[in-house]
Amino acid sequence: MSHPSMRSWLAALPPGQGRAAAFETRLWWSPGSAAAKILKGLEKVGYRPVGKGQRFIVKDKYGPLREGEIERARAWGAELARALA
Question: What CA–CA distance (Å, rounded) separates 70 from 63?
């Protein structure tokens, strides 16, 4: 099954309202920030960021997540929930 790229998905996203959050999984040495670009794309169509995008590190090109990253992701999710409460 094929899925659209994040860039094409954002380009097709209709204007809206609401809050948004973004994250990326990456190798520790990857340059740039996909999460920041995703948030900018969401802002362009009306979604306000709840907080900064997050990066979660994977051990290899396709995962799994590095030790401790799942706990960081859970903590980030709890932080997002508190910000929206």
Answer: 12
